[in-house]
Amino acid sequence: FFDESSVFAMANPQVNCVQTVDDIHRNLMVNYIPEAWTQVELQNLFQQYGEIESCTVVINKQTQTSKGYGFVKFFHRADAESALEALNGYQIENRTLGVKKAELGKGPPGPASIYVAGFTPTVVSEATLQQIFSQFGAVQRVKMHTPQPGKKGVA
Question: Which has the closest alpha carbon to 100: 116, 109, 110, 87?
Fold first, then answer.
């Protein structure tokens, strides 16, 4: 039905940040990091609990120092849970680390608008589009724009 090069989507930004349940349990947010800390110090503290996939200290662009928080993502959920239990409340350089599971936003992503182009409206109907896209989630509305004669359809 569709020419892949002509299908495109414009969605709310959260839709493009897909995070699985496993990711949530492997990714930790670390608060109250000492200002002088870099990724190296954070990784050194957490790596004793398991293999780290990624580690980031959020930096103030103006001062080039830590904003006081960062993220550590482990390859294995059990390692992240061990680090969370051991390091939440850990005292370091007159600070008490706050460690919790990092999550994107609060709750699931909101609805998204998807625009599809490059199909022949006499071959593809609103019902066909509804059927195709409903396999990926609930479709709230399908609206086809009537093309000018000789042009391809847009929905």
Answer: 87
